Amino acid sequence: QVQLVESGGGLVQPGGSLELSCAASGTFGGINAMGWYRQAPGKQRNLVAEISGGGSPNYADTVKGRFTISRDNAKNTVYLQMNSLKPEDTALYYCKALALVRSAVLQYWGQGTQVTVSS
Fold first, then answer.
1. pLDDT tens per residue, range 50-100
2. Do 88 and 60 meet the contact criterion of CB atoms below 8 Å apart?
3. DSSP assignment string, 30-85
4. What does the buried/exposed string (b/e) look like for 33-46 if buried means 16 or more CB atoms within 10 Å of the residue's CB?
């Protein structure tokens, strides 16, 4: 099994910055793609950013130029640096990872970390 533990959420003023991190632990052969999704109240969960095992990033249009995703493969950790935050970035942010477990690629989710952008 794989456990994903997120941290770094909180309350920030518009224009501010936060960095989220998500560490994978457990028994697995490797971590492939990792990503961040977010879900605001009453809305569906949407992709924010993802990064391949080789380090290629992909961003939602709404965060391009403001957010940066990165990963540390040695630590099985993915980061999301969020700058120029807007009130519409307020949501519960979830980490997702594709892990190789007993010859199968399985999808895992973290428990979510709240990001609130408000003055």
1. 999 999 999 999 999 999 999 999 999 999 999 999 999 999 999 999 999
2. no
3. EEEEEEEEEE-TTS--EEEEEE-TT--EEE-TTTTTTEEEEEEGGGTEEEEEE-S-
4. bbbbbbeeeeeebe
User: What does the radius of gyration of the chain's CA atoms come to, in whole angstroms?
Assistant: 14
Beta carbons of 89 and 82 less than 8 angstroms apart: yes
The tokens of 60 are what?
A: 């939602």
Instruction: Report how far residue 54's alpha carbon sits from residue 119's, in angstroms, rounded to the nearest whole number.
Output: 38
User: Which of 6, 110, 90 has its CA nearest to residue 42?
Assistant: 90
**Beta strands 10-12 and 113-117: pairing type?**
parallel
Q: Which residue do the tokens 């080789």 mark? A: 54
Q: Give the closest residue to 4 by CA, choosing from 21, 29, 19.
A: 21
